Amino acid sequence: MRNLQQKLSVARGEQPAELLFKNARVVNVLSGEIYKTNVAVEDGRIIGLGDYRAKRTIDLKGAYLAPSLIDGHFHVESSMLTAPEFARAVVPHGTGAMVIDPHEYANVLGLDGIRYILESTKNLPLDFFIMLPSCVPATHLETAGARLTADDLKLMIADERVAGVAELMNFPGVFLGAKSELAKIKIGKGKAIDGHAPGLRGKNLNAYVLAGVGSDHESVGVGEAREKLRLGLHILLREGSTERNLEHLIPLINAHNSQNCSFATDDKLAGDLVNEGHIDHCVRKAIKLGLPPITALQIATINPARHYRLHNLGAIAPRFWADFIVFDGLKNFQVRQTYKKGVLVAENGKFPGKLPAKISLPRSTMNLHYAPKNFIVKASGKKKIRVIEIIPQQIITKAISVAPKIENGEVIADTARDLLKMVVIERHRATGNVGVGFVRGFKLKTGAIASTVAHDAHNVIVAGTNDADILFAIQELERLQGGQVAVASGKVKAALPLPIAGLVTDQPLPKAMKLIDDLNAAAHALGCDLAAPFMTLSFLALSPIPSLKLTDQGLIDATKLQKTSLFL
Amino acid sequence: MRNLQQKLSVARGEQPAELLFKNARVVNVLSGEIYKTNVAVEDGRIIGLGDYRAKRTIDLKGAYLAPSLIDGHFHVESSMLTAPEFARAVVPHGTGAMVIDPHEYANVLGLDGIRYILESTKNLPLDFFIMLPSCVPATHLETAGARLTADDLKLMIADERVAGVAELMNFPGVFLGAKSELAKIKIGKGKAIDGHAPGLRGKNLNAYVLAGVGSDHESVGVGEAREKLRLGLHILLREGSTERNLEHLIPLINAHNSQNCSFATDDKLAGDLVNEGHIDHCVRKAIKLGLPPITALQIATINPARHYRLHNLGAIAPRFWADFIVFDGLKNFQVRQTYKKGVLVAENGKFPGKLPAKISLPRSTMNLHYAPKNFIVKASGKKKIRVIEIIPQQIITKAISVAPKIENGEVIADTARDLLKMVVIERHRATGNVGVGFVRGFKLKTGAIASTVAHDAHNVIVAGTNDADILFAIQELERLQGGQVAVASGKVKAALPLPIAGLVTDQPLPKAMKLIDDLNAAAHALGCDLAAPFMTLSFLALSPIPSLKLTDQGLIDATKLQKTSLFL
Q: Mean pLDDT throughout B109-126?
């Protein structure tokens, strides 16, 4: 490693540089130009642009050289991959840095979850910057593994890889001035404060911004996004597995405001990352939708770097890290090579980069205490029950009321009418909390599906056609110490073990993708026709999202944010 | 004063706001739009945009409302005004915030000079942010009142009104890796680091940037500016009294890079500020030169605010200060009203704003020790002397050699050939240092002119036609405790007392302008035909600027940065 004075000598051209990227068509996101030059690198840092001598030369033969891409907002748990395996998925797509909200880990493991992600993201060919989760638990209506207050977040805010406070999802709490929420904003002073305010407009949006929030990634239309941009929010253009807002937001962007926008994926499945791409997909799509390529690449690089104060990332200039992508055309933008600190870490979709040999694991998180008799629903004599109706591809649900099917004085599932029984069991502190309800939309004809991924508290959630399979699925998840299973008639049809916090697999990327595919296939074989049965299942416990949800505390009227009864 | 929770209630519309700017055509520098809306203000802060109720309403009747203007780099001493009187000059032109380098005060008073400027800029209708002077003294070839090292700067860097480290004028020291200069950059970590690198290009420029410099205001042409922008420097488009680079730099700016540019004036005289304008002049000129008005206004507001991290300045959005300008047209941009924290502080060129009643003064700074016999230059027998030749309107000089005029064995001034005698006397520590030389270009026929403003060390500098008037001028400056005088035949023709560090007048703006005009008129009456005789005089001691200069240490070959002899 050379000290700064030695590097300056290299920059002055007195000594040859370690490495030179020659004949590059440099995408200069600072001057807004693309032009041919050479880029000299020393100790992983850019030391100069121009005509340098070097010990080693990489001749790009006129290919484009741009800064590596940056995701402005992501929950890495949504890929169900460890950070190293996530890197294996996205580095070939040109991703160089991630701003992540380890919100799911924090709901299960508290500060230990944040420490785990800080630890497990070290020494990777991909930089991770952490936003401290601000909404753990999501509401008082679900029992998470932890509760994080402003005082807790304060313990970690000074870490140099902590870029700020993560999405303030309790947006009414913020605009109404709840002390707990304002305190979380306060500790983030001098760092970024992320927002999350779906549909918030008008005066309450003004109050939300006034309170100190600095970004939003929830806009689904240009009117909403423009209002947020006008009030000073940095707009994260979201394009994930299910939430796909980019096409609708592109008309927002013009020559005078693009500096206030970044790309984000929020949640994206491993298979989608591998097959469709990551931020490169956003760039490709934005260019196809008519954005000038230089603007698309600024939105993917320097804009998030500046907003989140990721120093020395996001541009090709002296002092910046030599984090590069190489590609051959702007019209059909495809990353051919990815460099991290001057080292080739991916090429032609392959990932030759080294990953840490050992996968670190956090503590075990399955701590259940339940009595199967509590799954029984006695008939009450009332004529109707409240049932959760799934809306395919959405995380909101409908609340419907139907006549219960009753046998031996108990309300049971009714596959003829697609009414499955659901059970949610608290799994963090062995409270014995059990919520029981009914759901329509899975269309299972037999068996049950179950998961320890269940937003946001990530308790055990099961939907099944009969109590025996429901119990069997729960026992199987306990045995696996977290995961997702499809069972029928006392047999495991497919299982995805998620030993890391019950959220993430310890398997390498190809094996993980195979397990996920097999699991979905098994659910489909049981009769389900949803595109992503387990993702749908995982959102049925999310208490702040309308209309009807089931948590370990029971059936939740999520519109009124209060408990409700099964029987009407 | 309302607390945040009360302000949130106003933002939500539950209570009327204190003040509403109604029917405004808001220049939204964040969304890059101009559109009609209302802006609600509480306790000097913007709390919401939209349809608000208020206790008091200002109906703008469709006039434009933009954020107040910001100067990205200025030496307030160049106006020779105190900070309050400077505010009186520029606030009617719409200036709301200044990033200043109190470099002249620091050369005279050291850290006390910086403390003085921090103190004297409080409670004004204009915000001042301070960059810590990095080049005191300018070189080892002049004796300033102080020497500031990185350790000294460290004592003040944490002040919240300190925005970083000021222009690193010793640019060779920086790109060559001098420890003293790298140390100054290091203490500015997390704040802005300003550069100053006239004409620096190529590899040495790469090294200068690599060392940590973040801006430059010295580009005079688009090629130089583009190279600096490409390497990551924030470009300050300078338009001062004499250095006028804006017209030449406008072609640099396009839709993809304007966010990396700000306006700056660097040095501007009181009269020019009042008559021509300040940053409003830059906006006006930029629009006339073809820049989109929204871009010109972004360059004048949000861009410097972001670069220098001036939180809550430079935009009209919730949480920002209600620092506004009102104007009636974009094509002929003229500021009609200026508001500071919601209060009208200037209107139609008038300044009804209140200024602090008492002007604070730093300690006295005139500490001379000299013997008039040291002004005598004995003939040496050599045939030629080195003479400084003034180049009008420039701070560089020419070195010429001429035959000396000799009387009674002494070299004396020769008005027939426009050769005046010059004397520089150290005035800070009574060292007794005296430099004597000769200058061509002032064209005085009689008398002498003298100044305690003499860049950068600000010693006493005199140019005169005879030794008696030279001595009289020095005595007069001593009596005034700093200033500028024109004398002839033992009489004061005009005097501008500068009791504040020998740099700045304690007089109110109109009186100061009158004194300055009278002083220049007196110099012209003595025969001088330069536009600004005293400004020219003040740069003749600036040792780092080519070619030949005179300091208290003697004649300086500024190209080689070493002393030289009078006789060839």
A: 96
The pLDDT of residue B242 is: 86
Asked if A50 and B317 come within 8 Å (Cβ–Cβ), the reply is no
Question: Which tokens sit at B180?
Answer: 């003293």
**What DSSP assignment string belongs to A417-458?**
GTEEEEEEE--SS----EEEEEEES---SSSEEEES--TTTT
Those residues with Cβ within 8 angstroms of residue B372's Cβ, 6 or more apart along the chain or in another chain? B467, B471
Q: Is B209 on the interface with A (CB under 8 A)?
A: yes
How far is residue A482 from each of residues A450, A502, A503, B423, measured CA to CA in Å? 10, 4, 7, 87
Asked if residue B360 has pLDDT above 90, the reply is no
Among residues B532, B533, B540, B529, the alpha carbon closest in space to that of B387 is found at B540
Interface of A with B in 150-189 (CB under 8 A): 175-177, 182
Residue range B296-307, pLDDT digits in tens: 999 999 999 999
Angle (CA) A222-A228-A229 rounded to 5° is 85
Contacts of A206 in chain B (CB under 8 A): 11-12, 47-50, 318
How far apart, in whole angstroms, are the C-alpha atoms of residue A95 and residue A79?
A: 15
Of A552, A545, A536, A554, which Cα lies nearest the Cα of A424?
A552
For residue A212, is it left (φ>0), alpha (ψ between -120 and 50) or beta? left
Q: Is the pLDDT of residue B357 over 80?
A: no
In this complex, which of B28, B182, B232 lies closest to A30 when CB atoms are compared? B232
| Separation of CA B524 from chain center | 25
Residue from A206, A226, A233, A306 whose CB has the most chain B CBs within 10 Å, to mutate: A206
What mean pLDDT is predicted for residues A490-505? 98
At B88 the pLDDT is 96
Q: Which DSSP state fits B332? A: T
Q: Would you tell me how many other CB atoms lie within 10 Å of the CB of residue A525?
A: 16
Instruction: For residue A162, count CB atoms less than 10 angstroms from its CB and return exposed for 0-12, middle for 13-18, buried for 19 or more.
Output: buried
Q: Does position B173 have pLDDT exceeding 80, yes or no?
A: yes
Whether residues A232 and B49 touch (CB distance < 8 A) is answered with no
Residue A427's Cβ-count burial label (10 Å; 0-12, 13-18, 19+) is buried
Nearest CA to A436 out of A373, A498, A497, A491 is that of A373
**AA identity, residue A233:** L
Q: What is the three-state SS of A181-249? A: HHHHHHHCCCCEEEECCCCCCHHHHHHHHHCCCCEECCCCCHHHHHHHHHCCCEEEEEECCCCECHHHH
Its ipTM equals 0.95
Give me B419's structure tokens. 């050769």
Q: Is the peptide bond before A364 cis (omega within 30 degrees of 0)?
A: no
Of B13, B48, B210, the CB nearest to A47: B210
Q: pLDDT tens, B227-282?
A: 999 999 999 999 999 889 999 999 999 999 999 999 999 999 999 999 999 999 99
Identity of the residue in A231, A254, A256 whose CB atom sits nearest the CB atom of B318 = A231
B260, B72 contact by CB (below 8 A): no
Amino acid identity at A281: H
Tell whether A223 lies on the interface with B, counting CB pairs under 8 A: no
- Residue B198's Cβ-count burial label (10 Å; 0-12, 13-18, 19+) is middle
CA neighbor of A308 nearest in space, from A99, A50, A490: A99
CA separation for the pair B329, B339 (Å, rounded): 18
The span from the CA of A314 to the CA of A324, in Å, is 9
A-chain residues near B32 (CB < 8 A): 254-257
Neighbours of B498 (CB within 10 A): 27
Rounded CA gap, B266 and B128, in Å? 14
